[in-house]
Design goal:
Blueprint: E1 2-7, H1 12-23, E2 29-35, H2 41-48, E3 52-55, H3 64-78, E4 82-85, H4 94-99, E5 104-108, H5 120-127, E6 131-138, E7 148-155, H6 162-185, E8 189-192, E9 195-198
Parallel strand pairs: 1-2, 1-4, 2-3, 4-5
Antiparallel strand pairs: 5-6, 6-7, 8-9
Helix pairs in contact: 1-6
Bound molecules: 5-O-phosphono-beta-D-ribofuranosylamine.
5-O-phosphono-beta-D-ribofuranosylamine (GRF) binds near residues 10, 11 and 87.
């Protein structure tokens, strides 16, 4: 089962997926990293893990369609079956999302539909919610609006701040994401309208 990870930054989720592949818990193979920031730390992590890298600068292309066409060719060449967004800070075009419909997932640091978009942890703290968490969802044409696959909650305590909440969120993300990918590798994820079920 071949997976491509799309990421733009630090790469803690990417690394957790690599570790899960190495321990056998992923049930699949990370065939490539796609990164829109060639200087990002995640590129070094992929290099160290011997994962193929497609890194590009969007400004070197006339349009999103141009670089997405190259990405699609790389994905096809490797027979990628699932696209895993892990801190990819760019919206995919609607034609790309439609072409890969049901085969792109994202992880978001809130309990969607609360706090979509950027700085979900800051949004949750500013709102004053007492619980937040992590959502893994299918990607559709909107911003963090696709069908929910899995969620995990954490409590926000009075002495929490953006750093402490982020640290706990990241711990939860790193355990949840590879597990969800393993469900895909096992062919257990079914989508019916907006409703996702995980088969035994
Ligand atoms: C994660 O918090 C994820 O939920 C969000 O972007 C962040 C990526 O972190 N979509 P990292 O690059 O995996 O460390």
């Amino acid at each position: 089962f071949r997976i491509a990870v799309f990421a733009s930054g630090r790469g803690s989720n990417f690394q957790a997926l690599v570790d899960a592949q190495q321990s056998g818990a992923l049930g699949g193979e990370i065939s490539m990293l796609v990164c829109d920031k060639p200087q990002a730390p995640v590129v070094e992590l992929a290099d160290a893990a011997n994962v193929d890298i497609f890194a590009f600068q969007p400004k070197d292309y006339a349009s999103k369609e141009d670089y997405e066409r190259e990405i699609a060719a790389e994905l096809q060449q490797r027979g990628v079956e699932l696209i895993v967004l892990a801190g990819y800070m760019r919206l995919l075009s609607s034609s790309f999302v439609e072409f890969y419909s049901g085969r792109i997932i994202n992880i978001h640091p809130s309990l969607l539909p609360a706090f979509p978009g950027k700085d979900a942890i800051g949004q949750a703290l500013a709102y004053g919610v007492k619980m937040t968490g992590v959502t893994v969802h299918f990607v559709d044409g909107g911003m963090d609006t696709g069908p929910v696959i899995a969620q995990r909650a954490i409590e926000i305590q009075e002495d929490d701040n953006a750093e402490t909440v982020a640290a706990r969120i990241h711990q939860v993300e790193q355990k949840l994401y590879y597990e969800v990918v393993s469900w895909f590798a096992q062919g257990r994820v079914a989508l019916n309208g907006r409703i996702v079920t995980i088969k035994n």
